[in-house]
Amino acid sequence: MDPTDVLERIDAKEVVDLALALGQIDSPTGSEGAAGQFVFDWLTENRFAPRKYALIPERFNVAATIEGSGGGYSLIFNAHLDTTLRPDAVLSARDPLDPLYRTAWVEGDHIYGDGVVNDKGPMAAFLVAAKAIKDAGYPLKGDLIVSAVAGEISREPTEEWQGPQYLSKDLGARFMVTHGVVGDFALIAEGTGFGIVGIEPGKAHFKVTVLTEGPRYYTPYLPRPTRLADAPNAIVRASAAIAAFETWAYDYQQRNTYRGASGTIVPKASVNAIRSGYPFNVTSAPQVCSFYVDTRILPGANPMDVREELRGVLRDAGVDGTVELYLYRPGFEAKGAERLVETIERCHAQTFDTPPAVVADAVTSMWRDANAFNEVGIPAISYAPRAVSHATTKSFRIKDLTDAALVYARIAMDLCCQDRPAQVALGAHPDRAIAASVVKGTKAP
Q1: Which pLDDT tens digit goes with each residue over 144-192?
Q2: pLDDT in tens, 217-246
Q3: Residue 269 pLDDT more than 90?
Q4: How far, in Å, CA of 394 to CA of 381, rounded?
Q5: Which positions ≥6 away from 173 have C-beta within 8 Å?
Q6: Same domain for 99 and 35?
Q7: 145 and 247 assigned to the same domain
């Protein structure tokens, strides 16, 4: 069968309509159920046989398979259901009810909405591509799997914020993969500007607690002047530590910048939360202040080394305190992904006039679900359209979205029809070479 038969079935309006329908479902992390059910129902209506993969019933992942005839490589398309900003995020966003975060619309030649950009637009593109392959009866050798997952955007249990609503990666892509959604390769359809990303950092979250000695001062008795680092108010004292942290953070990212064939990582660190005192009782200076640090770390790096550096920040600032690691998620570089990369490059050239984009450092320096696949040995690459200004406009060109459906269809038809050697049955990832050699009765190198 000619691949053109599939490509001609991809209707630009269908891609846009599906992206809008998904984008108009408000599904911030922790509340993905309605969006997941929509995808499940859409797949059912289009004669797929979707399944739900749920650690908890209301926050489930969805996947469906077009089974191949055998002998070809299998490919997982993946995108996430959850969006970035909850309506109650009043302590971290100026306008958490901004329509850009809650809905989606078309204006001119662009489709707008944070949920569409991150990440339901690319999801719509590969869903429509898979539908075209299925409707055309295109003869794939390997399986094609489409998946929509919860919990990609970070919410992590800590302190009194515990329970299922604060889980992210653990109930999302990683749970789905370890419960049967496995392939030879995974393509993460998340914004890269149609560049190819094969490496992502890990992340470590730290709680840095600053303490004061001496009495807890009632405001009228507060002694002044003092150095920031000697202030009897823990909030003021923490400001000295934060100033030292900012100097350290810039040095840290410069020392640890990694440039390799799979992309560049500039691992940044930022103070993104602070707790101290009580707004209903501000008559006395607090003796305890904690600030919370998001630190990106290179694949293979040890978060304990970062903890030691943060302890050094406190010492250098002359501030008494503690540093606690409360979250660690490792990063990975895709291993054994060459075939997928070559296929993407070939299909990209068939779709676009220019080669894959050079991806901005910030894009390769974020944690995405490719890590969840690479962690369990499934080579994963990120590749999708991206907003020109993700921070402000949060929009795609409609043509970018519809072109994504075309290139995804080409990638699936190409890769899933490539002959898969028998020894790859245990996986192409180098880490599986020992298992393969045991089965063959040979010694692993």
Answers
A1: 999 999 999 988 999 999 999 899 989 999 999 999 999 999 999 999 9
A2: 999 999 999 999 999 999 999 999 999 999
A3: yes
A4: 23
A5: 61, 78, 80, 147, 149, 151, 152, 369, 372, 373
A6: yes
A7: no
> What's the pLDDT tens digit per position in 414-441?
999 999 998 654 444 544 443 333 333 3
In a domain, 438, yes or no: no
Per residue in 66-104, pLDDT tens? 999 999 999 999 999 999 888 888 778 778 878 888 899
Residue where a domain terminates, one of 300, 329, 358 = 329
Structural domain boundaries, residue 191: 3-200+333-432
For β-strands 105-107 and 110-112, DSSP reports them as: antiparallel
The total domain count for the chain is: 2
- Residues with catalytic annotation? 82, 152
What is the predicted pLDDT for the residue at 131? Answer: 98
| Amino acid, single-letter form, for residue 352 | F
222-254 burial, b at 16+ Cβ within 10 Å, e below that, comes to: eeeeeebbebbbbbbbbbbbbebbeebbeebbe
Same domain, 11 and 128: yes
Same domain (yes/no): 249, 107: no
CATH number of the domain within which 213 lies = 3.30.70.360
d(CA 295, CA 309): 12
pLDDT of residue 388: 67
357: domain CATH number is 3.40.630.10
Alpha-carbon distance of 301 to 330, in angstroms, equals 8
Q: Has residue 443 been placed in a domain?
A: no
List, in order, residues 6 or more apart from 303 with CB less than 8 Å away.
202, 204, 295, 297, 325, 328
Residue 140 lies in a domain: yes
Length reported for the chain: 445
Considering 306, 329, 352, which residue would you say is the last residue of a domain?
329
Q: How far is CA 242 from CA 203, 204, 237, in A?
A: 19, 17, 9
Give a yes or no: residue 437 inside a domain.
no
- Edge to edge, what strands does the sheet with 110-112 contain? 105-107, 110-112, 395-397
Residues 6+ apart with CB under 8 A from 430: 335, 336
Percent share of the chain, pLDDT over 70: 94
104-133 pLDDT tens trace: 999 999 999 999 999 999 999 999 999 999
Whose tokens are 């637009």? That residue is: 121
